[in-house]
Amino acid sequence: MRKLIEFNHLSIDGRLSGDDWWAGQMKVPSSDKHIDYQLQLLEQAAGLVLGRVTYEGFAETWPAMTGALADKINVLPKHVASTTLTETTWNAKVLDGDAIDAVAKLKESGDGTLLKYGNGPFSRALVEAGLLDELHLSISPFVAGSGESLLSGISTTPLNLTGVTEIGNGAVVLAYTPSR
Fold first, then answer.
1. Band of the pLDDT at 167, cuts 50, 70, 90?
2. Which of 13, 70, 126, 156 is least crowded, fewest Cβ atoms below 10 Å from its Cβ?
């Protein structure tokens, strides 16, 4: 059975989007350790799981990118949760039927991991359905002050800390597994 791992970038105040978040994130240069961490996650990945908004943003930028991360991300199959997309590109397919049921079937269909990027209603639904196996949070050393927060509106969900990795430039990745 496959594991589902979600990876997100956050400010230290738990924000992951918005103009202030982007401005702060752009001031934290990526390091080799950060790239190596993501490459380790991608090495295990059998595919990416993305919501529509994340898919559209990634599909606009990643195909033109180069380097080790782009080489891994661009070739992986993408499984997209959407009720509105009718066409996809970039080695992607819209999940059939109910997205949560489709991800449960994907998890049962092979080995390796499914790596999920992005956050929003789809992420919340995956957590609440008990399908998320690991949550990796890359915490960057800045306060955004505004923007969307991680998993807003989710019911109380206890997590266990399973790893702390320093990835350079004052950033760390905290890895969690849900308590079951």
1. very high
2. 156
Tokens of 22: 């982007």
Asked if 51 and 82 touch (Cβ cutoff 8 Å), the reply is yes
Q: How far are the Cα atoms of 23, 108, 150, 164 from residue 112, in angstroms, in the given order?
A: 35, 11, 26, 22
> Residue 118: left if φ>0, alpha if ψ -120 to 50, beta else—which one?
left
Q: What is the pLDDT of residue 25?
A: 87
DSSP of 122-177: HHHHHHHTT---EEEEEEES----SSPBTTTTPPP--EEEEEEEEEETTEEEEEEE
19 class by beta-carbon count within 10 Å (0-12 exposed, 13-18 middle, 19+ buried)? exposed
Check if the beta carbon of residue 132 is closer than 8 Å to that of residue 49.
Answer: no
d(Cα 69, Cα 133) in Å, to the nearest integer? 23
Dist. CA 108–CA 60, nearest whole Å: 30
**Selection from 25, 104, 33, 88 nearest residue 56 by Cα:** 88
